[in-house]
Structure formats: C-alpha cells, structure tokens
Amino acid sequence: MRQITAFSNPLVKxxxxxxxxxxxxxxxLFVAEGLRILTEAREAGCLPRILxxxxxxxxxxxxxxxxxxxxxxxxxETNADILHKLSGKDNPQTVLGVYAAFDTSLxxxxxxxxxxxxxxxxxxxxxxxxxxxxxxxxxGAGGLILVDDCADPFSVEAVRASMGALFxxxxxxxxxxxxxxxxxxxxxxxxxxxxxxxxxxxxxxxGKPAFLLVGNEQAGLPEAYEVACDTLVKIPMLGKADxxxxxxATAVMAxxxxxxxxx
Length: 263
Known about the structure:
This protein is α/β, with parallel strands linked by helices. The protein contains 10 helices and 11 strands. The protein has helices at 10-17, 21-27, 35-43, 59-70, 80-87, 126-139, 156-162, 176-183, 223-228, 246-262; strands at residues 2-3, 29-33, 50-53, 74-77, 95-100, 116-121, 143-147, 170-174, 189-193, 210-214, 231-233. α7 (156-162) links the parallel β7 and β8 (170-174). α1 packs parallel to α5, α3 (35-43) packs across α4 and α6 packs parallel to α7 (156-162). The mean pLDDT is 95.
C-alpha cells in the first residue's frame, strides 16, 4: 500500500482522465466509486486494478483491500480532495476503483443463460442505461445489449446509476443489422414498445428467451425496427403524459414479462 496526496501525481492525472470517453476507450479502463458498488463488484468476481481509499476503515473495505492486493492490484491511501478530483463529485465517496473494461462483443452473449434480455437502441442518457442495468439485475435478466449509438455504459454517471449491476449483467454492443442477424440465428422473441401499437402490453403471452427492445428517449424506435419486432405492444397512458421515461417503461415491461413466467 502506498500514499498519494499530490494533485500533480501522474496516476491522479491518468485516472482523472478516465472521466473522458476517449480516454476510457484508449486505455480500456473505467472508474467505479463507493464501497457498496465496489463490494458488489468483488462479490461478482471483479476486482479493481487500482483502489483508492480515504478516511476510516470498514470491514468491507478491509476485505476489498486484501483481495485487490492478493490479485496484484495497486492499493492507494489518499484524501478527500484527491477523490474529489478523481470523481468530479462535490461529496465524493471514500472508495474509488479503476477497472478493466469488459469485452462487449455480441458473440460473448449466451442467450440460454437467461429467459430475458434487454436491448436498448440509441439511448443517449447514461443515467437511463445505468437504471436499466439495475432493473435487469432485479428481474434476473441476462444483460443489456446496446444497439446503434448509445451512451457509454462505463461512464461515471452510468456506473453510478447501475448501483453495481454493471458487474452482474452481461453488456454487449452492436449495430442493428449485426444484432438482428445474431438474434435470428437462434431462438428468441423480439418485443418492442410503441405509442403507435394497438396491442396492450399485458395481452400477449411472452415466450423465452425474450428480447425486450426499448428505443431512444426522444424518438422511440425507428419504423423499420418496429416492423422487425415479433411482438409490438403499448403501455397505456391514463393521464396527460403521452409516454414514460425509457428506463421506467423498461421496468414496467420487464416485470410484466417476468411476472407472467412466475405465475
């Protein structure tokens, strides 16, 4: 274990740079913060390459330090000012980890691992991506497949919103054509939601594996994507709002699908 308290330290500058997407992609690293999230990662078998901590020790932090060091990771004691610089938050967590980015190739997805998979098309809000990952974990989904130009799931905002689910859910990324080719090469029902659909979301009986497709926050699904769906449904809007937030709509649909199987 070593100590770093200087802002000019090269490692501080390197880790701070991981807040930028191009640096994350170039270095193949991303940042997660908070003892709860890092403990979720440890329990899922993911340990940080670099672990920063400050302040009082905790049994969970002790376990994280011990396992990180045993795996050859770098453990650094620092202070709140350095953690603020690394995370960009006014009230930073007392623990921050630097992790190797995951392999997001579609070929690594085994559709037989779970009955439900979530597919997001052109989502631009990293908070929505993190929340959908958290929902996927809650319903026992296999993971999240990002289609087309989505926000980075390894951004600080997405990792934060996932509350550790980033480490329990398989994440893949592909173009729409590549995803559709992969999907049709095996079993799977593609389920989309659309304000233009006439079928209520509770009417169909969903099969396994189910691939729940959610569209862009503003534009929804392109027409060609809707046509490609095996089932296209609508969540009824009973008030003045014409639609739900993308992450909320995903949660409503995911629980409807899973609850059908539970019953």
